Give the backbone structure.
Amino acid sequence: MLATRCLALVALAMMFATGCSIKRMAVNKMGNALASGGSTFQRDDDPDLVGDALPFGLKFMESLLAESPRHKGLLLATASGFTQYAYVYVQQNADETEPVNLAQATELRLRARRLYLRARGYALRGLALKYPGIEQSFRQDPAAAVRPMRKVDVPLMYWTAASAYLHYYISVLKCLGDAPTCTGTGLLCGR
């Protein structure tokens, strides 16, 4: 009986001590579900509804990442989500708006640039889990930075390259400057 009470006390103490672990476990479970999902948005036949819902979903993923910053799948989903949202709902809107309102189109492109940089940051954070210092490596020697990467790294490499290229595209072709931020993009695409 005494052993049972001791065991119960130890279990109770462990439960209180691991409160953060339980929270992190729940966050990781939600992160796993979000990271593996996406098909609901892809199958939806109302692109405006999807576009209106995406910002909430992206901010929710960011809040989960604040609790579990090393969740690779969530970093990938967030990088992918920000890149796709920026392209489909911000950059495309800027292109359609330009003939009518150049000032608004310019503001939309600036927003798209910020979203692409945010996406690239999440993708690089995902790569940095396995390759610490990867962002600095890309800046110093892009070819050497991608050399150790393998097939399993392709999704994060892709979203790093896609977000960096789209940021570069807007910066250079729309005369907004900041071309040097994208030196490694071609190497990522060619690997």
Observations:
- The chain has one domain: 22-190.
